């Protein structure tokens, strides 16, 4: 049955690809680019077997074309060794909605600017409420690269692989296992960049800085060792740590010292971190006011500059990372470059652009908001206005309404994509990643990695679709 379905796929691609020596050979790239949108829909919305075959075809076709998931580790440590300029900040973009169309817009913007230093990412929590497991997310990004004719390394990142403090307190081993399982699934899917977030376990009530950070650095070191065991040959996964939970008090030099000294004591004889996330005054999604608008945020850019310099000069990392930045005013983004910030994470603004876009029918928006009033009612605080409640909870509707958005008319999707592309291009210019393709080519190597097929190509071999679907 699976073999017949694979043959159906190959026939539907009308000769764009063929199987040759158990690998996919792209025979007509132009035709493949025309067919890839149908293929990614099958990879997202098909049944289990269909998803597995479609995702395998996308991965293998991307490998054949030189579009390969990669680690940004070597570029970051080169920056820590002062072998690269410090005048650019890498954008890491969480594509919660319309991942394929959004990634297409990213690639179009990047290609026009000769940009190479940019990251696609998704957090542990986002995978749940957006209904996107790692293999689906990777497939959407790679399909977008194929569709737009992109070439080169593609950086895909697990953002906030976070330990829940509440679950950890109740059952530490179970929560650690959940994070390890996610790491293993993500690396297998092509996430070669992972941000470990054990900052939820920092206890600032303790008088000693080492004790405050102890659980944080112990678990981060443990997960780092696990990542090194699971990373494929030829890949050094870029691993980030975090010393201050977003939305809490600002990080200090002393926090960084306490964390890194503890981490380095425990990391063992394996590669360490390439970056460190810190807190400077932002919060995820921004602070929403009663009328639904966002409060102005005051980022402490001096903290970014001071801690970034220490991360590079004393610990050899690429620098520090800013979270929760996408809802900042446009005038703020160039400042990240001025204070030599390594990486900045952007998410909510893209979600907002899509949800509020003129091409989205008002009836669909209202249906989504009515769904929230029933299914997210428990999250509404007594003090919340209707606008505050909707703004804070609407991300929870992304998964349940995913198919509604993916199935918008083609002209609507194109209009949304055009506006996203303009926003990505603006951010890339502000963060000064124009021309960074050359830097990526100099420092990054993306090895060719093949995934087991949805069935063995040779006759008589055992079928194997497990692990390719969710």
Topology:
Blueprint: H1 2-12, E1 17-20, E2 23-26, H2 29-45, H3 48-65, E3 67-70, H4 73-80, E4 90-94, H5 99-113, E5 119-123, H6 124-129, H7 134-148, E6 152-162, H8 165-170, H9 172-189, E7 193-197, H10 209-230, E8 238-242, H11 253-266, E9 275-278, H12 301-313, E10 320-322, H13 333-338, E11 343-346, H14 348-355, H15 362-375, H16 386-393, H17 402-406, H18 410-430, H19 437-443
Helix pairs in contact: 1-3, 2-3, 2-7, 3-7, 5-7, 5-18, 9-10, 10-11
Q: For the terminal residues, how far apart are their CA atoms? A: 20 Å
Give the domain tally: 3
Order of strands in the sheet with the most strands?
Answer: 4-5-6-7-8-9-10-11
Query: CATH topology of the largest domain, anyone?
Result: TIM Barrel
Structural class of the secondary elements? alpha/beta
CATH architecture of the largest domain: Alpha-Beta Barrel
Which shape, going by the Cα principal axes? globular
Measured on Cα atoms, how large is the radius of gyration?
Answer: 22 Å
- Give the amount of beta strand, in percent: 5-15%
CATH superfamily of the largest domain: Aldolase class I
CATH C-level of the largest domain: Alpha Beta
**Beta strands, count:** 11
- Helix and strand succession? HEEHHEHEHEHHEHHEHEHEHEHEHHHHHH
> In this structure, how is the largest beta sheet organized?
8 strands, parallel, barrel
In terms of per-residue confidence, which ranges show pLDDT below 50 for 5 or more consecutive residues? 284-289, 457-470
**Amount of helix:** 40-55%
Tell me, rounded to a whole number, the average pLDDT: 91
């Amino acid at each position: 049955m699976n073999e017949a379905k694979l043959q159906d796929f190959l026939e539907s691609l009308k000769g764009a690809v063929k199987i040759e020596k158990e690998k996919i050979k792209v025979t007509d790239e132009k035709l493949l680019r025309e067919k890839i949108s149908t293929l990614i829909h099958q990879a997202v919305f098909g049944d289990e077997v269909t998803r597995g075959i479609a995702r395998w075809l996308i991965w293998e076709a991307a490998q054949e074309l030189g579009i390969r998931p990669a680690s940004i580790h070597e570029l970051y440590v080169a920056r820590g060794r002062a072998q690269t300029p410090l005048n650019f900040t890498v954008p890491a973009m969480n594509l919660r909605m319309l991942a394929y169309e959004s990634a297409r817009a990213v690639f179009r913007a990047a290609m026009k600017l000769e940009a190479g230093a940019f990251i696609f990412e998704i957090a542990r929590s986002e995978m749940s409420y957006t209904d996107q497991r790692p293999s689906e997310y990777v497939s959407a990004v790679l399909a977008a690269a194929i569709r737009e004719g992109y070439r080169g390394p593609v950086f895909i990142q697990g953002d906030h692989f976070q330990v829940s403090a509440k679950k950890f307190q109740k059952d530490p081993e179970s929560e650690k296992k959940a994070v390890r399982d996610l790491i293993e699934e993500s690396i297998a899917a092509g996430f070669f960049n992972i941000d470990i977030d054990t900052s939820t376990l920092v206890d600032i009530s303790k008088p000693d800085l080492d004790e405050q950070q102890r659980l944080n650095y112990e678990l981060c070191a443990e997960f780092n060792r696990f990542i090194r065991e699971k990373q494929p040959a030829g890949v050094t996964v870029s691993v980030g740590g975090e010393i201050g939970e977003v939305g809490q008090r600002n990080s200090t030099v002393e926090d960084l010292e306490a964390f890194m000294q503890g981490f380095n004591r425990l990391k063992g004889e394996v590669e360490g971190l390439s970056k460190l996330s810190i807190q400077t005054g932002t919060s995820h999604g921004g602070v929403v006011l009663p009328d639904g608008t966002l409060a102005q945020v005051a980022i402490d850019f001096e903290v970014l500059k001071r801690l970034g310099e220490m991360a590079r000069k004393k610990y050899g990392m690429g620098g520090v990372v800013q979270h929760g930045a996408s809802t900042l005013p446009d005038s703020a983004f160039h400042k990240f470059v001025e204070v030599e910030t390594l990486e900045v994470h952007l998410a909510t603004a893209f979600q907002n652009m899509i949800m509020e876009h003129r091409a989205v029918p008002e009836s669909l928006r209202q249906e989504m908001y009515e769904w929230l009033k029933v299914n997210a009612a428990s999250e509404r605080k007594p003090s919340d206005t209707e606008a505050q409640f909707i703004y804070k909870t609407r991300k929870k509707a992304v998964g349940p309404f995913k198919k509604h958005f993916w199935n918008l008319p083609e002209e609507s999707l194109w209009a949304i994509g055009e506006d996203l592309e303009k926003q990505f291009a603006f951010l890339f210019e502000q963060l000064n990643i124009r021309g960074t393709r050359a830097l990526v080519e100099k420092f990054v190597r993306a090895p060719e990695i093949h995934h087991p097929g949805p069935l063995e190509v040779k006759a008589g071999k055992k079928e194997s679709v497990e692990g390719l679907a969710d």
